[in-house]
Amino acid sequence: MSGFDCTTCGQHHDELPMCLGLSAPELWLRWPDTERSLARLSSDQCVLEGRYYAILGRILLPVVDAATPFTWLAWVSLSEASFRRCDALWRTPGREQEPPCFGWLHSALPGYSTSTLSLKTHVQTMPVGERPLITLEATPHPLALEQHHGITLARVQQLVEASLHG
What is the Cα Rg of the chain in Å? Predict the structure, then answer.
């Protein structure tokens, strides 16, 4: 996709990103710095105090007027058992055969009038080297509706602008 003229800052951006995400789950972002010694954050996983577990996955939003989907990289909190199973299979070929596990969306994604935190999800492990797929449960939340019905490139631009200038 070529660039776009940003309605927020008025500048021309050379590219419309089709993938955006957050570097950490919301709980990590709110966790006091002084207590992070009991926490572990990598590019794919997060454990806080051995009580809270999260992994990074992909929410795909079909784009009705483009060939590729828009992707949110988002964090999902899992039960300890689900997290440990995902972690044990992290580098195991065939892991995509595992059934999906339940999780709670743990990323506050910009561009939505209603918070995206704590939406119910199902996380499907993908082949080694691919981030898990996150499917939101069917609800009237705008993000769930977008995942199930698709969005336009104009909506992608709105999400990008909200991310860049939130």
Answer: 17
Give the Cα-Cα-Cα angle 47, 21, 4 (nearest 5 degrees): 170
The per-residue pLDDT for range 69-110, each reduced to its tens digit, is 999 999 999 999 999 999 999 999 999 999 999 999 999 999
Q: Are 133 and 58 in contact (CB under 8 A)?
A: yes
Residue with tokens 């009237």: 140
What gap in Å lies between CA 117 and CA 3, rounded to an integer?
A: 30
3-state secondary structure of 28: helix
Whole-angstrom distance, CA of residue 111 vs CA of residue 133: 21
Contact 54, 77 (CB under 8 A): yes
**Integer Cα distance of 37 and 45 in angstroms:** 16
Reported as a single tens digit per residue, the pLDDT across 105-157 is: 999 999 999 999 999 999 999 999 999 999 999 999 999 999 999 999 999 99
Rounded Cα–Cα distance for residues 25 and 106 (Å): 5
**Residue 134: phi, psi to the nearest 5?**
-110, 125
DSSP letter assigned to residue 63: B
What does the alpha-carbon distance between residue 116 and residue 77 come to, in Å, rounded to a whole number?
13
Does the pTM surpass 0.70? The reply is: yes
